[in-house]
Every structure is written in structure tokens, then in C-alpha cells.
Specification:
The complex is a heterodimer. Chain A is mostly helical. In chain A, 76% of the residues lie in helices and 0% in strands. Chain A contains 14 helices and no strands. In chain A, helix 5 packs antiparallel against helix 6 (127-141) and helix 6 crosses helix 9. Chain A starts with a helix and ends with a helix. Helix content of chain B is 71%, strand content 0%. The longest helix of chain B has 40 residues, at 111-150. Chain B is elongated and about 75 Å long. In chain B, 55% of the residues are buried. The chains are: A mainly alpha, B mainly alpha. The interface between A and B is large, with 60 and 45 residues.
């Protein structure tokens, strides 16, 4: 086990090295280049030259690469042109908000998706099953930010049940330790603040959860259907075991293995969902920041975000691989 | 997975997990005809005709394509003409009327005409993006597949390097991959199509590679090789065309995701800067400014996108099931 983890950790370095080269080519050598992306195609040659000079784009490519690597190793992603703060700092202060949103969304997706998928499979062909399959199909095909609009409009503005703006009520006093507002409220025992933060994250959380939810439902359903046909389930039934025991020990334990693996894939869906949803609810996370960066041509933030995504996914990959090896020992020998 | 010797050290489970699901489809559709009972194409078409889901999906796709083709010729108003500009007041955009079936947009343009016209642009974005993804993926996957199947040891090495790269891309969420490309290329419709195409490339590459490797062990390839047919000819004339079935299925599914992803990029502000040209994704992204005044302006393009994407997805899933009944759930 430990050997596997060490080996897997060591594998990260060549991946990161390859990724950094790829990103360098991606960001510096593509047609157009930073000066066009920064100024638009119709910028005057003088302004383009000024930008090229400032970014050092006229220097030899190896010199540029050396500087790029130095900055990367120092975790220097440049300075945001919007806020004049280091890009990395901006990301780190906003990351807890996005993390909170994606975690809530994940809890919603798993908590609702697995039971629904299970019952749909148990009552295959029933109304519930058909609604579940049809609904998850529609869910996958719905642009997530449109769903966010609808939720905001119906539950926020028309019914007035839930707040639709920001992470906490304006004027609310709350102590922030981790910047995960719900957790902060629980740690400091400011229950009102925790509840307030929870209500604020609920609508965006449902929107972000939609696609992961649809995927989990479909996977659970397919997986349970497969296990239901296995001999050991029939044996358990004929032994006279109770439904509860069969459901827990025989069906779900086997059926959920592939679903657990899929949760790693969902990290991607969750992060893209957050990027598209935060804006609608003025939820001050990375997504909203990047959205504004696009509108203000904040090039360092956009490039920083691309690097952030790339390295996050190498990390997520690593974590999922290790947790997978805990669940399924066969992975370790492969 | 008997044909996977070059896959000893994949970069990680997310890419690998998606990759393995893709390989599964590739391999199963390569079952020899004598085990299936009849030719793959005929059996697939027969199953498709019997499936109401496939027919529903096909009907939606057909209607969409017809609208895209003839829509611009039957629009009651030119899509760029601000015919009702005098009726627009701050805080009031007229809704549906006899003259304007879906009302006006914020600049007094006829929404119904724009929806009809937008179908063509939307189809264009979907098709071009899918073609880009298909071509790039077919190139990478084809080289990897051919190298693995027929290239000997050096070929296995080439395949292994290419697939590690592809698996790395597979681990990225497609929208964020498209985002990375679009942000670097700058704002234009071409950039959107390239970005969405690049995001679809790894799936196509992995699928074609798996399919080609599965085909490479079939009797007709052995026979052609034994007859002394040159290697290039075996790959291009025999293996490649026979490997395309699952790739075509994927292309149908990709059309749906391409339209949704293009809408997402438009929403983020990386779409076509010329918002006068109607395209559903752009229209939906633009309608967010009018949400308080007339939310229906967002609903029309959104519903159109959902129905179209649903059509392509239903058709694609039905085709996938028809190709391989074992995947049916």
C-alpha cells in the first residue's frame, strides 16, 4: 500500500514537468499570442509592441522558458490587472467559496442520486424509473447557467424562499476562520451565521449538482441492474435474508464500486458547473472572478486559471487513484 | 482487455476510467459478424428502426436540420432588422403578438425570426466543432491505433506516448479544456468552434484507437497481410473504415455537447463578439441582461438548445445501444 502511494507520488513529477512544457507552448506559442488576446486583433502595432516588450516576448524562447519556469516554481502567476493583487493570492482567497459550493453540490448529487438510482433500478419500467431516466437525460442536456437562472427566478425572486445573492446576508456579522462560511459558523457556534450561509449556498449548489446528479443516477441505476442479476443476490434472497441486509451487503456494496470511481470524474463537472453558476448568484468564488477577468481582459488571471485547472486535475487524479487503490486492491499491482 | 500491453502505466484513473469505458465500446462493436448473426450495419439499422427512442431523437434532429436549412428563407422579418425599435421602452419589451409570434428582443428585433435564423448558426457551430474534434481525434487515434496494431515495438512506444497525452486531456473537464483554448485564441466564432472541437478530440482519439486495435486482430486483416497487402493499405483501406462505427456514434453525441458547451462559452463571454448574428447560445447568454424585464427571451433559446441536444443524445444513445446490446440498461 505505502509502496504504491510512493510510486504514484513519484509519477506526479514527470506529469507535472510535461504539463508545464505543454502549458508554456499553449500560452506563449499559439497563433495570436498574448498580445492579441490581451488587446484584441485590431490593436495598433505600437501597443502590441509595448505589450510584447513588457512580457518579454521578443527574447529567445529558451530565455522565456527559463523565466516561465522560475515564476512557476516560485508560484508567481503574475498580477491581476483588475485588482492589482497577485493572481495566486486572489485565487486562494476565493477558493474556499468555490470549494464550499462544490462540496455542497456533491453532497446533494450523491445524497439524492444514489437512492434515486437504486429505486429506479429496483422498480425497473415503473413510472419512477421512466421519470428518473428521462429527467436525468434532460438534466444532462440543460445548460447549467440556464438552470441557475430558472432556480433563481422561481425560488428566489417569485417565491422568495431562498436568498439569491452572495454568500451571506448583507450586514450579517460572522467570524471567518477557514472562509468556508458554514464550517466557520459551526466552529464558532454562530449557528445563525452557519444557517444563513447554508441557505445562500443551497440554490447555486442545486444548480451545480444537476449534471453530477444525473450522471450518478444513471450510473447507479445501470450498476444496480447488473448486480441484481447476479447469483449471489438470488442466493441471498432464497436464504430468506431481509431486504435491508440484501440491499446493504449484497447489492449496494457491489454496485457502488464503479460509482465511487466515477466521483473522481465528477470533480471536473463540479468545477465547470461552479464556474458557470457563481456569476448568476453573485457567489464570490473563483468562477465569478474568472468571469469578470474575461470581461476586463485580465490576461494574467485567465492564464493563471488555466494553470490552476491543469494542476488541480493532476492533484485530483492522484487523490482519486490512491483512494481507488484502497477500495480495489487490484489497482495496486497493475 | 487482452490487447492492452502498452497501457501499463496510465497517468491516472479519471482519464483511464473514461478511457476504459471508451475502449469497451470500441471493442464490443468489433465482434465478428458470425457471432452476431448478421452484418453490423443491417442489425444496427433494424434495431434503430424498432426503437421509439431512436425514432424520437431522429425526428428532433430532422426537424432541427430542416429549420436550419430553410429557416433563413421563411423568416417573417430579417433577423438583424430592428423592426419594432419604437415599441421598446426601458423596462418594457413587448411579448408575443400576431405580428411578432415570440415578441421582440431588447433591440426591437423579431425574436421568432432570430430563433429560426439562429438554428443555422447553432448547427454550424455544432457540426464544425464536431468535425474539428473528429479530424484531430482521428489523426491522433488513427496513428496510435495503427502504430500499436502493426508497428511492432516502436509502434507500441508511439502509441503509449500518444495515449498518455490523450488520457491527460481526458482527465480535464471538457468545458474547462474548451475554456483554456478559447481564452488563448481570443473572442471569435472560429475560436469557439476550435475550442469545443479540441475539447472533443481526446474522446475521438481514444475511441478510434481502441476500435482499430480491436479490428486489427480480425481474420480479414490477417488474410490481407498474408496476401502481401502493404501495411499502409491494410491500415487505411481495411482497418480504418471498419473502425468507424463507434466513432460515428460518438459524433452524434458530440453534436449535443458541442452546442451546450458553445452556449457555456458564450455565457462566460468567450463567444462570438458580434452578437447581432443570431445563434442560440449567444442569444441565451445575452438574454441574461434582460432577465428582469422579459425572462422569456432566455427561455426560447434555452428550450431550443435543450430539445436539440436531447434529440442528438437520444439518437446517439440509441445508436450506441444498437451497436452493442450488452450496454443496454
Amino acid at each position: 500500500m505505502a509502496r504504491f502511494i510512493v510510486r504514484r507520488l513519484l509519477q506526479v513529477f514527470p506529469t507535472l514537468a510535461a504539463l508545464s512544457v505543454l502549458l508554456f507552448i499553449w500560452l506563449r506559442a499559439l497563433p495570436g499570442g498574448p498580445e492579441v488576446a490581451l488587446l484584441g486583433e485590431r490593436a495598433t502595432p505600437e501597443r502590441q509592441a509595448a505589450i510584447r516588450d513588457r512580457l518579454g516576448l521578443d527574447e529567445p524562447i529558451l530565455v522565456q522558458y527559463a523565466r516561465y519556469m522560475r515564476e512557476l516554481l516560485q508560484l508567481d502567476l503574475g498580477t491581476s490587472t483588475q485588482t492589482r493583487q497577485p493572481v495566486l493570492e486572489e485565487f486562494l482567497t476565493r477558493f474556499p467559496a468555490t470549494l464550499e459550493l462544490t462540496l455542497i453540490a456533491m453532497i446533494i448529487a450523491i445524497g439524492a442520486g444514489i437512492p434515486l438510482g437504486y429505486f429506479a433500478a429496483r422498480r425497473r419500467g415503473s413510472l419512477l424509473d421512466n421519470l428518473t431516466v428521462g429527467g436525468s437525460m434532460v438534466g444532462i442536456c440543460t445548460p447549467i447557467f440556464f438552470l441557475a437562472f430558472v432556480l433563481k427566478w422561481v425560488f428566489g425572486e417569485n417565491l422568495g424562499w431562498l436568498p439569491t445573492f452572495g454568500r451571506q446576508s448583507p450586514g450579517a456579522s460572522a467570524t471567518h476562520i477557514t472562509n468556508l462560511f458554514i464550517l466557520d459558523g459551526i466552529i464558532t457556534r454562530e449557528w445563525d451565521a452557519a444557517w444563513d450561509a447554508f441557505l445562500h449556498v443551497l440554490l447555486p449548489g442545486i444548480a451545480v449538482a444537476s449534471i453530477p446528479f444525473a450522471i450518478i443516477v444513471r450510473m447507479t441505476r445501470a450498476s444496480v441492474l447488473e448486480v441484481l442479476g447476479e447469483d449471489y443476490v438470488r442466493t441471498a434472497e432464497s436464504k430468506g435474508l431481509t431486504h435491508r441486509v440484501i440491499r446493504g451487503r449484497h447489492i449496494l456494496r457491489n454496485a457502488l464500486l464503479p460509482v465511487v470511481t466515477a466521483i473522481g470524474v465528477l470533480a471536473g463537472a463540479l468545477l465547470s458547473g461552479a464556474v458557470l453558476t457563481e456569476t448568476v448568484f453573485a457567489f464570490n468564488g473563483i468562477g465569478l472572478f474568472v468571469y469578470n477577468a474575461i470581461r476586463n481582459s485580465d490576461y494574467p488571471v485567465l492564464m493563471g486559471f488555466i494553470m490552476f485547472i491543469a494542476f488541480t486535475f493532476v492533484l485530483v487524479n492522484l487523490l482519486v487513484d490512491i483512494s481507488y487503490s484502497v477500495i480495489d486492491p487490484r489497482v495496486r499491482v497493475r | 482487455m487482452a490487447t492492452e500491453p502498452a497501457q501499463k502505466l496510465p497517468p491516472g484513473p479519471i482519464g483511464r476510467w473514461r478511457g476504459e469505458r471508451i475502449d469497451q465500446l470500441a471493442e464490443l462493436s468489433a465482434t465478428p459478424p458470425d457471432e452476431r448473426g448478421e452484418s453490423l450495419t443491417r442489425e444496427t439499422l433494424r434495431r434503430l428502426r424498432r426503437s421509439p427512442v431512436a425514432m424520437a431523437g431522429a425526428a428532433v434532429v430532422l426537424v432541427f436540420v430542416v429549420i436550419a436549412l430553410i429557416g433563413p428563407f421563411v423568416t417573417p422579418y430579417p433577423p438583424l432588422a430592428t423592426v419594432g425599435l419604437d415599441q421598446i421602452r426601458p423596462g418594457n419589451i413587448p411579448g408575443p403578438s400576431a405580428d411578432h409570434w415570440l415578441g421582440l428582443d431588447h433591440l426591437g428585433r423579431d425574436e421568432f425570426s432570430r430563433m429560426l435564423f439562429g438554428a443555422r448558426q447553432t448547427l454550424l457551430v455544432g457540426v464544425v466543432a464536431t468535425l474539428i474534434g473528429f479530424s484531430a481525434g482521428a489523426l491522433i487515434g488513427g496513428v496510435a491505433g495503427a502504430a500499436n496494431a502493426l508497428g511492432g515495438r516502436a509502434g507500441q512506444w508511439i502509441d503509449s506516448v500518444l495515449m498518455r497525452f490523450i488520457d491527460l486531456l481526458l482527465a480535464m473537464p471538457p468545458l474547462l479544456l474548451a475554456f483554456s483554448v478559447a481564452a488563448v485564441l481570443g473572442r471569435s466564432l472560429t475560436a469557439v468552434m476550435i475550442a469545443v472541437g479540441v475539447a472533443a478530440t481526446p474522446i475521438f482519439a481514444r475511441l478510434l484507437r481502441g476500435s482499430m486495435i480491436a479490428q486489427a486482430h480480425r481474420d480479414y486483416v490477417v488474410a490481407a497481410t498474408a496476401l502481401g497487402v502493404r501495411r499502409n493499405r491494410v491500415v487505411l483501406g481495411h482497418v480504418f473504415p471498419n473502425s468507424l462505427a463507434p466513432v460515428i456514434v460518438q459524433a452524434t453525441l458530440t453534436l449535443a455537447t458541442a452546442i451546450i458547451e458553445a452556449a457555456g462559452l458564450s455565457f462566460l463571454g468567450l463567444g462570438n463578439p458580434n452578437t447581432a448574428v443570431p445563434e442560440w447560445g449567444t442569444m441565451l447568454a445575452q438574454a441574461q441582461d434582460q432577465l428582469a424585464v422579459r425572462p422569456m427571451l432566455a427561455v426560447y433559446p434555452a428550450v431550443a438548445i435543450i430539445i436539440t441536444a436531447l434529440g442528438f443524445t437520444l439518437l446517439g444513445e440509441a445508436m450506441r445501444e444498437a451497436l452493442d446490446p450488452k450496454l443496454r440498461t
